[in-house]
C-alpha cells in the first residue's frame, strides 16, 4: 500500500470538516481530503524534527509507524503484520499522533545507514503466456557488507516487452 499513515480530513459532506484560512482573508469550514490531510501530516512531522534535528527520512518513517494509532478508523482491511502491528491499505498504520511522535523523537537513536541488497532473479527473458509466477528464496545478502538486518522497502524492477 502507498499509505503509511493518516490524519483527519473527512471524506464527504456529512462528515465533520477542517476549518482553515481561505482566499480573500476569509475562513472556510469545508476543507477536506488530501488537501487538508497533507498539511496536518507535514505539521506533525515538523514538530518531530524540531524535537530532534538529527532525524533522517528513515528515522521519520520508523517514528510514523511506531506512533500511529488505528484508533476508531473503520475499514475491513485491518490486518496484523509480522511484527504485530495493525496495518490497513486504507489508513496505513493509523492516525498520526503528534504527542507520541514528538515524545519518541526527543530521545530517538538513528536507525543507521540504509543497506541495499540487489538480486537479479530472471537473468533471461521469460514468456508470460496467460500468467507468470516467479518465486525466489532470498537470504538478504547474508554474510556480505550490505546484509539486510531490517526490511523496510521492497522494489521490484520489471522490464516488459509486448509483441
From TrEMBL:
One of its GO terms (biological process) is peptide hormone processing. Signal peptide: none annotated. Keywords: Hydrolase, Protease, Serine protease. It comes from the Eukaryota. Residues 10-94 form the Peptidase S8/S53 domain. One of its GO terms (cellular component) is Golgi membrane. GO terms for molecular function: serine-type endopeptidase activity. InterPro entries: Galactose-bd-like_sf, Peptidase_S8/S53_dom, Peptidase_S8/S53_dom_sf, Peptidase_S8_Ser-AS. The keyword tRNA processing does not apply. Belongs to the peptidase S8 family. This is Peptidase S8/S53 domain-containing protein.
Amino acid at each position: 500500500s502507498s499509505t503509511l499513515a493518516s490524519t483527519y480530513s473527512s471524506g464527504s459532506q456529512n462528515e465533520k470538516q477542517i476549518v482553515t484560512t481561505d482566499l480573500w482573508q476569509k475562513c472556510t469550514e469545508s476543507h477536506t481530503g488530501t488537501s487538508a490531510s497533507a498539511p496536518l501530516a507535514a505539521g506533525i512531522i515538523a514538530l518531530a524534527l524540531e524535537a530532534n534535528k538529527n532525524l533522517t527520512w528513515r528515522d521519520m518513517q520508523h517514528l510514523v509507524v511506531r506512533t500511529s494509532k488505528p484508533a476508531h478508523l473503520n475499514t475491513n482491511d485491518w490486518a496484523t503484520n509480522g511484527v504485530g502491528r495493525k496495518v490497513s491499505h486504507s489508513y496505513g498504520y493509523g492516525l498520526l499522533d503528534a504527542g507520541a511522535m514528538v515524545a519518541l523523537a526527543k530521545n530517538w537513536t538513528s536507525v543507521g545507514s540504509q543497506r541495499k541488497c540487489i538480486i537479479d532473479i530472471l537473468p533471461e527473458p521469460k514468456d508470460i503466456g496467460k500468467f507468470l509466477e516467479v518465486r525466489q528464496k532470498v537470504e538478504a545478502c547474508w554474510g556480505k557488507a550490505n546484509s539486510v538486518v531490517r526490511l523496510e522497502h521492497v522494489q521490484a524492477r520489471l522490464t516488459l516487452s509486448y509483441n
